[in-house]
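> call design_seq(struct)
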């Protein structure tokens, strides 16, 4: 009767935890083996048989029959067996095995309390196992949960009995989470740890954007439209390349939806992240040009083997092409798989001239070294920079020290050439200076070019600030002051006339 009551209690708890009957039987067996071990110190010779249908269980201990007992846990005498069952003792002899049945009531109240703790722990372990197996098969799916806890580096989301973790790097930077908020995310990874399953979800992963499009655009789920590539700055901007397997369907239009209904739903979910949808093309120049949108390149120089592209833009469009902090050009590079360098038209022309400069006219390069390089078909700056170091070092008369000096001299030449322009390139529209009437305004105009020159340098290094046309045309700070002074002088003369 006691056994049945215990089984019923255990079964009720298991049903509340959604534990399967087979798992329950294994837990009960482990439970009583644990109790026997705590009571006797060893349970290696014990076995537990559980019958859930009948609500019964029995605990058996196998002992060796000996003449003198040295280990009461593992051994027993015929006299002790006779006290338990005299008829059975007659059929046994020394060296045989004896099966003893243990009454669960011998464990006492303290052991029963420990049994409850053990049983609860085992149920938690089984529950964690179920959670792990469930979510391990759901990697890549979108789930919706409730924010349970917000920490510095993690946001914990609860879904039923499972706790999911969203690390800082998997969050959208511009978003802020509060306890009780509903959050949609994609399951990124599931791992088992000593503390249980570690389920990581993400809102910044590219796959999350993919699944959002799959939810909003039925043609993608039906494989009529494919997303071939995705690049993101989560919460800021994203570019995706799509193609249609049905000529009758426009992939870009299908993703945008009627009056932008589909794309707007995704944008709202991603905290107003801007999304550029690019129609795929087999021609690399077409694909790269589309990827650089909203800027339109004047020319593209593409090397398909090395996956490298030089994009030329109008000087006024260069800032748009690069984007804030290089976002646009970097996304275009990531989504197409090409390394893209963006240049303004005048800057590229200047660089071309630098590359075409003969090494023989660079004063700091030894004429004998220049002659040696010329004999090996290395005539211009471009030839030197494109040649491999191994090939250069294999030439007689060139060692590592000389080669390093060559690179330094060429670099110095290029840096000096960046602030050297032809007289005909120095053109300043004096009409912009006609408003100068006071000495104070004149002083401001004299200082401004130097600041603009620094602005251009910043763009070259960080690709963040716009190129100023006046600054790029002036050779040095002194030249700029002369230009401004001359312009002011001409303006004053015009006014006097």
């Amino acid at each position: 009767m006691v056994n049945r009551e215990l089984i019923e209690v255990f079964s009720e708890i298991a049903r509340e935890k959604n534990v399967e009957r087979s798992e329950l039987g294994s837990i009960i067996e482990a439970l009583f083996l644990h109790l026997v071990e705590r009571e006797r110190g060893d349970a290696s010779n014990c076995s537990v048989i559980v019958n859930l249908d009948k609500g019964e269980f029995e605990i058996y201990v196998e002992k060796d029959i000996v003449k003198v007992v040295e280990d009461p846990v593992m051994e027993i005498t015929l006299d002790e067996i006779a006290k338990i069952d005299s008829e059975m003792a007659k059929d046994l002899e020394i060296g045989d095995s004896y099966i003893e049945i243990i009454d669960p009531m011998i464990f006492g109240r303290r052991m029963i309390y420990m049994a409850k703790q053990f049983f609860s722990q085992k149920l938690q372990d089984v529950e964690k196992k179920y959670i792990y197996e469930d979510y391990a098969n759901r990697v890549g799916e979108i789930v919706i949960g409730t924010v349970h806890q917000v920490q510095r580096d993690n946001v914990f989301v609860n879904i039923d009995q499972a706790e999911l973790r969203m690390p800082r790097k998997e969050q959208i930077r511009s978003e802020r989470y509060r306890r009780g908020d509903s959050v949609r995310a994609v399951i990124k990874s599931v791992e088992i740890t000593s503390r249980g399953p570690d389920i990581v979800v993400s809102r910044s992963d590219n796959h999350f954007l993919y699944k959002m499009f799959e939810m909003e655009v039925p043609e993608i789920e039906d494989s009529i439209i494919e997303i071939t590539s995705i690049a993101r700055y989560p919460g800021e901007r994203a570019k995706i390349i799509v193609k249609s397997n049905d000529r009758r369907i426009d992939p870009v239009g299908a993703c945008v939806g009627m009056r932008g209904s589909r794309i707007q739903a995704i944008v709202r979910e991603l905290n107003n992240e801007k999304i550029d949808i690019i129609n795929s093309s087999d021609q690399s120049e077409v694909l790269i040009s589309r990827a650089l949108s909203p800027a339109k390149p004047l020319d593209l120089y593409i090397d398909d083997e090395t996956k490298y592209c030089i994009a030329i833009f109008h000087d006024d469009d260069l800032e748009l092409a690069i984007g804030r902090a290089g976002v646009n050009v970097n996304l275009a590079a990531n989504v197409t798989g090409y390394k893209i360098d963006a240049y303004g038209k005048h800057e590229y022309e200047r660089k071309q001239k630098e590359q075409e400069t003969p090494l023989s006219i660079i004063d700091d390069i030894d004429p004998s070294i220049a002659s040696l390089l010329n004999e090996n078909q290395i005539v211009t700056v471009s030839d030197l920079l494109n040649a491999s170091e191994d090939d250069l070092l294999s030439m007689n008369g060139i060692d590592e020290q000389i080669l390093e000096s060559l690179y330094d001299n060429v670099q110095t030449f290029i840096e000096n050439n960046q602030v050297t322009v032809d007289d005909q390139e120095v053109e300043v529209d004096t009409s912009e200076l006609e408003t100068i009437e006071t000495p104070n305004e004149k002083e401001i105009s004299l200082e401004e070019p130097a600041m603009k020159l620094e602005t251009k340098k910043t763009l070259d290094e960080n690709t963040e600030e716009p190129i100023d046309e006046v600054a790029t045309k002036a050779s040095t700070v002194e030249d700029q002051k002369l230009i401004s002074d001359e312009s002011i002088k001409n303006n004053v003369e015009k006014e006097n006339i």
